[in-house]
Amino acid sequence: MALYKTQAIVLKSxxxxxxxxxxxxxxxxxxxxxxxxxxARKAKNCFWxxxxxxxxxxLIYFGKENQSLYRLNQSDIIESFQSIREDFAKLYTxxxxxxxxxxxxxxxxxxxxxxxxxxxxxxxxxxxxxxxSLIRLFEIRLLSLSGYKPQIDHCIVCKTISExxxxxxxxxxxGIICKNCCxxxxxxxQFTTGTRNYIKKLLEVEIKNCGRIxxxxxxxxxxxxxxxxxxxxxxxxxxxxxxxxxxMAQLI
Length: 252
Ligand SMILES: [Zn+2]
Hints:
By secondary structure, this protein is an alpha+beta fold. The protein folds into two domains: 1-80, CATH 2.40.50.140; 126-251, de novo design (two linked rop proteins), CATH 1.20.1440. It contains seven helices and eight strands, in the order E-E-E-E-E-H-H-H-H-E-E-E-H-H-H.
């Protein structure tokens, strides 16, 4: 038996039996981990409040190395992100981030950058009201960290550096196709230089400053067609929480 201590963020929590819960964490040091929290459903238990989705905790768990299910030993709250839960638009944004991580990251795949991405974007969601750019930033960076960074600097076939103008993009090739190559390689969408530059900024900006890069309203749809559509191609389905985000965006 090994004992593991690490920071973690709760991805999801479900009832396992009358007294126990099954909790999925993204840990800082060991990637995605599932733990049984014994007695977590009882009224007075030491895990109270710390196993809600989005909560960042100090986690201690134990079990045999490389097993699929561990036992939760201790969880102490670092940051509850309570203010996110009190605002529906922020809540669904946070839930969408958790769902993407849970769907796209396999257990056993450990990457501190993915943990930092989730921790820093949740912090930014708590602090700022402009959520659209954070959603696009999270999508494109999670894709990049998972090995699916789109090629938007040069043609993916002939490596020609694209000139300013219209960019043709292929979801299957995950990159731009130049004017000469698009006769041989089918493309799915076109977007402008402004959209290409905005996506590049999303990949480079410090997350806490994401709110400063404003996207013109007429380009929002173009950026979504690249980043969200790539998420769909990768997952093969629409994340359950995404329609709620769209609904909230229309209400605001
Ligand atoms: Zn080309």
